[in-house]
Design a protein that fits this description.
Blueprint: H1 4-7, E1 12-22, E2 31-45, E3 48-55, H2 68-79, E4 86-93, H3 103-118, H4 125-136, H5 140-147, E5 150-156, E6 159-165, E7 171-178, H6 184-189, H7 197-216, H8 222-225, H9 232-235, H10 242-251, E8 256-259, E9 266-271, H11 275-288, E10 293-297, E11 306-309
Parallel strand pairs: 3-4
Antiparallel strand pairs: 1-2, 1-11, 2-4, 2-5, 5-6, 7-9, 7-10, 8-9
The structure holds L-homoserine.
L-homoserine binds near residues 188 and 261.
Length: about 300
Amino acid sequence: MAPQAALSAPRAVRVRVPATSANLGPGFDALGLALALRNEVVAREADGVRVAVEGEGAGRLSSGGDNVVARGVRLAFEAAGRPFKGVELTCRNRIPTARGLGSSAAAWVGGLMAGNALLGTPLSRDALLALAARAEGHPDNVAAALHGGLTVSCLVGDRVAAVTLPVPAGVAWVVLVPAVTSSTAEARGVLPVQVPRADAVFNVQRTALLLAALQAGRLDALGDALDDRLHQPYRRRLFPWMPGVVEAARAAGALGCVLSGAGPSLLAVAPDAVAGDVGGAMEAALRTAGVRGDARALPVDMDGTVAGAA
Ligand code: HSE
């Protein structure tokens, strides 16, 4: 007799997975914020792999077995010890690719959740998170994509410890997406292997202050808390417009402005009332540097990745 999970497994599933902004300044490889800009994956069991991509990445992302969403589905089958014959995927993408907004994390998490749902959910969310973090190479984007909200994540051997925190009301998260792409591998390649202890302490203090300030609603402390010495100073040479955009965002009333993940997008934290001004100032500063880009305030996604029958 087939196992219970297989009996209740749906033939087609729909998964929704949010964009994420990692690091939030000092929390390199540890903090992620899920944003209400979501990809949707519809998956059906099939013989062989076929992927249709709509929206972001259409015509560029693979339509075969090396598509990252399809690899996620296969990974879920392998981890559950089930034979993988193939899958038919429709990916409706709204998260811009290669911009520091977690498109690759969304692809891994979306594929893993879809595969697990097709199998009748034999794998726990913790198991999916560990698989996604290993595939992605760092846990911050995948943990926030899976759980939603502001998620703190920590690699502990083979697993990921993750805790999701509330985010204060009255704060706008303004994302500036430049019309250029960047590779995370390259943006990690420019980072030094070792850092001075003073810089490590600088970031420990600010990461702790950032989480404390957000939990206590002490927005006045965010300006100090969003500073970083572990990654942004080194990545500045990849994104020479960064200092100008950060300065313009602050001048327009932002509490701070940081690289989103490994860039090139930037994330400003601002009181709600000035979000529009901050976005406009960021776009103008980017334009002054000769690069086009769009800014918009995105609500925080508190749902994380959600799967259901298609
Ligand atoms: N923490 C990662 C990095 C996020 O900054 O390289 C990549 O999206």
